[in-house]
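User: My advisor asked me to double-check a structure prediction for Enoyl-[acyl-carrier-protein] reductase [NADH] before group meeting. I don't want to rely on an old file, so could you generate it fresh from this sequence?
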Amino acid sequence: MGIFSGKTGLVLGVANDRSIAWAMSEALVAEGAELGFSHLPGERSERRVRQLAEPHNAKLIMPLDVQKDEEIDAFFDKAKEIYGKIDFVIHSIAYAPTKELQNPYYMISREGWHMAMDISAYSLLATTRAALPLMPDGGSIVTLTYFGGEKVMPGYNVMGVCKAALEHTVRYLAWDLGEKNVRVNALSAGPMRTLSSAGISDFDEMREHQAQKSCLKRNVDPKELGSTGIYLLSDMSNGVTGETIHVDCGYNIVGL
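Assistant: Sure, here is a fresh prediction for Enoyl-[acyl-carrier-protein] reductase [NADH] from the sequence you gave:
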């Protein structure tokens, strides 16, 4: 019996086996959680997620375009039909057009800025609102962020601005939902090789720099992210909300 036995959660945004959300999912399943998954529209994305989720007997594997309110409603309606209620949500959704990441920040187009902010920040608000009716007894919501939302990380550009908005959205949601016993937190991971990071210029240099400058002189391991996810999503963190928890081997505290 794991600490999540009898608990159900939804994981939004797994892309492949390198996704931070997948590292968290594996840890949760090992502790007895039942999980439902969303994936990007398209056969390729569905195939990747099904290969990961079906061995764990996931009852919900469904496409979700968070720019479409009707798809958000459909996903959570299906979750209610299958599970009745849920205990937690993992939000692992972010996107900016590659060309917008490659150009200096001041060159971003209005269209690109709105798309990045809609998908990467507003989606937390929209999916939280849809999840609330499924959490009558309270619950926990965790989103994923990065230190580029706090300090300038060259090459991260508009995603840093999106993460700043995401992190402050966490704080306002935590305030609004506290009386409903719903906690909202962010996990700020060190730079991980994921599908999303492939679009960031100089990403390998970012990882090398962090390994050299962090307190632990290394980069974070995916299993460490899974362990922190268990903490934030379980009763162990019942008094924690509105926080951004750094799992980056101490890099964020270093000033040189």
